[in-house]
Amino acid sequence: MPYLESLRVFVRVVELGSITAGGRDLRMSPAVASNRIKDLETRYGVRLLNRTTRKLVPTEVGRAFYDNARRVIETLDEAEAVVSGFSGMPHGALRVTAPLGLGRRLIAPLVPKFCDEYPGVELRLRLSDRNVDIIADGIDLAFFLGEPQDSALKWRRIAECRRALVATPGYLEQHGRPERPEDLTAHNCLLLRYPRSPEYYWVLQTPEGPQKLLVNGRFDADDGDVLSGWALEGRGIVNRPRYEVAEHLAAGRLVEVLPDHPPIPSQFGVLTPHRRLQDPKVRLFADFIAREVRGVFA
Prior knowledge:
By secondary structure, the chain is α/β, with parallel strands linked by helices. The chain is about 40% helix and about 25% strand. The protein has three domains: about 1-85, Winged helix-like DNA-binding domain superfamily/Winged helix DNA-binding domain (Arc Repressor Mutant, subunit A, Orthogonal Bundle); about 90-160 and about 265-298, Periplasmic binding protein-like II (D-Maltodextrin-Binding Protein, domain 2, 3-Layer(aba) Sandwich); about 165-265, 3-Layer(aba) Sandwich (D-Maltodextrin-Binding Protein, domain 2). α1 crosses α2 (about 20-25) and α1 (about 1-15) packs across α3. It starts with a helix and ends in a 6-residue tail after the last helix. This is DNA-binding transcriptional regulator, LysR family. InterPro entries: LysR-type_TF_proteobact-type (IPR058163), LysR_HTH_N (IPR000847), LysR_subst-bd (IPR005119), WH-like_DNA-bd_sf (IPR036388), WH_DNA-bd_sf (IPR036390).
C-alpha cells in the first residue's frame, strides 16, 4: 500500500524533523523517504514541507495534513490491533526504548526469543540514558529505572531494583572508607549526568529515613557503563544497580561502600502512551519481559 506507506513516512518526518531520521525510523533510505514525500506533494499539488537551515518544518497546509494523516495512521493501527487480538498473531513494528545498561543486560538478550515466539513482530530497540520523548519519538514501550515523571503516560511497575555504592579496594585504601553517609562529600563520586539529569544527589537509606546527599565528582558521564568502568579503574565511588555490579562484587574487584546505608531502590517498570485501544503486542512484550527478568531482581 504505497499511499499508506507515504503517509507513515510523512508523519514520522514531521515528528522527527528530518527525512533522514524519519526514514531511518521506518528502515528506509533517505532517498526512498524523500521520494515518498514527493509522491504526496505531487498527488496534491502543494508543498508540504519547508527546509530551514536546521530542520524540516511543515507548511501551513502540511501541518493540517499532518494532523489528519496522524489520525488516519492511528486509526489503522487500532484496526490492526483488533484483528491481531482476535487472531492471536500479533504483527507489525514495536518500538522499544530502555536505559543503556538495563537495555544491554536485560532487554536486548531477550529480543530474539520474543521474535521467535511472535515471528510477525519487528522489534526496534533504542538504548539511551538520556530522557526520551516517548510521544514525539513514537515509542510503544519505554523501560526505566527510577520514578516516572510524566503523568500523561501509563506506567507499570515490574520489580524493585536494589542499588549499591561500590568502589575498588585500592581506591578505598588510598582515600579512606566512608563510615557514614556524610563522608561521601569528601570523595570523588562518579555521577550519571546529562541535560535535565536528576543525579546530582544520592538518597541513602538510614534508620531515620531516606537521607538526600549532595555529592560531587571531578568527572561525570551520560553512560552508566562508563561510570562502572571508571570505578573499576579505582577512580571513585559509583551508585549502580546491584545486578550490574554483582559479578564484580563476587570477584572482589569492587567492594560495597556503606552497606548499612544503601541507596534507596529504583523502580524497574515500563511506560506506555495512553491509547484508546492498546496494541496486543505491547502488552505481550511487557508481560514477556516481566516474566523473564523476575529472577534478576529477586
